[in-house]
């Protein structure tokens, strides 16, 4: 077995050494590899899964081509070749190997998902994220600040006509997002963070991570939620602590609990107000 594994490992090492950074991260979004404490594990799972599948593909297609060439009908031959009904070693191989692959993929995926879904006992930063058709509100519980937004207008060429809603986060701080919806099912997705989380009316979901890279990242709703779903976009800006504190000082004082409900009236009108009542 070691004589079979060594050439494969060597070939993979040589192949990866010649890959571009884009190929090495499996064509995932630029800047995602070290965006949070969780993205390196997600990237590794993605890339390593593709390497395994490529190796399996090469072996399978090589066997298919070899069988087609080695057992082709030759000149002068007629009729069917000798038919073999059973080959226990080959059938055992074709049964055991897929089972091992499935168990391996399941194990590593479950391990990574457990880390992603784990919540911090005492997060340093807690933000409530409210999704609404078709905008976002951010309630910074730790800093007692609140930011609300309205629907972004999109031009015919797909560009926003105004500044996007912004979720501010401090870098290298354990962060918990409490995800809630005010109307229909939405989904919170920061593209470079490589993970989505659904948001249901009347239910709070959680996303826990530590931003490890400053910069601006694109966010959007990943669940079809109505006519202007494509306009439900926002930005995440990860800042150094001093910059983050300055931004918090610019926002309104926080509002929590039932006080949030009347805010939706200005976006949804009398119909939504009647439904809320």
In short:
The protein has helices at residues 2-17, 21-24, 39-70, 88-117, 241-250, 265-276; strands at residues 125-132, 135-140, 145-147, 166-170, 175-181, 186-190, 195-199, 205-209, 215-221, 233-239, 252-253.
What's the SSE blueprint?
Blueprint: H1 2-17, H2 21-24, H3 39-70, H4 88-117, E1 125-132, E2 135-140, E3 145-147, E4 166-170, E5 175-181, E6 186-190, E7 195-199, E8 205-209, E9 215-221, E10 233-239, H5 241-250, E11 252-253, H6 265-276
Parallel strand pairs: 1-5, 4-10
Antiparallel strand pairs: 1-2, 2-3, 3-11, 5-8, 6-7, 6-9, 9-10
Helix pairs in contact: 3-4
Order of helices and strands: HHHHEEEEEEEEEEHEH
Topology-level CATH name of the largest domain? Immunoglobulin-like
Number of helices: 6
Tally of discrete structural domains: 2
């Amino acid at each position: 077995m070691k004589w079979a594994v060594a050439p494969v490992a060597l070939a993979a090492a040589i192949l990866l050494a010649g890959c571009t950074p884009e190929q090495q991260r499996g064509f995932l979004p630029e800047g995602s590899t070290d965006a949070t404490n969780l993205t390196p594990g997600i990237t590794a799972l993605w890339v390593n899964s593709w390497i395994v599948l490529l190796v399996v593909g090469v072996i399978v297609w090589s066997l298919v081509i070899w069988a087609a060439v080695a057992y082709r009908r030759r000149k002068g031959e007629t009729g069917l070749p000798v038919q073999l009904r059973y080959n226990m070693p080959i059938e055992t191989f074709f049964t055991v190997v897929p089972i091992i692959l499935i168990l391996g993929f399941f194990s590593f995926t479950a391990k990574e998902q457990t880390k992603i879904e784990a919540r911090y006992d005492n997060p340093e930063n807690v933000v409530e994220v409210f999704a609404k058709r078709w905008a976002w509100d951010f309630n910074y519980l730790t800093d007692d600040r609140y930011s609300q937004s309205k629907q972004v207008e999109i031009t015919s060429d797909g560009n926003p006509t105004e500044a996007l809603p912004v979720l501010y986060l401090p870098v290298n701080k354990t962060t918990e997002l409490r995800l809630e919806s005010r109307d229909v099912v939405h989904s919170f997705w920061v593209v470079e963070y490589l993970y989505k989380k659904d948001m249901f009316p009347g239910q709070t979901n959680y996303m826990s991570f530590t931003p490890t890279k400053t910069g601006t990242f694109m966010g959007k709703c990943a669940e079809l939620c109505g006519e202007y779903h494509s306009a439900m976009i926002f930005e995440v800006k990860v800042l150094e602590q001093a910059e983050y504190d300055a931004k918090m000082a610019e926002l309104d004082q926080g509002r929590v609990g039932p006080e949030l409900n009347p805010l939706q009236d200005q976006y949804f009108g009398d119909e939504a107000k009647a439904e809320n009542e």
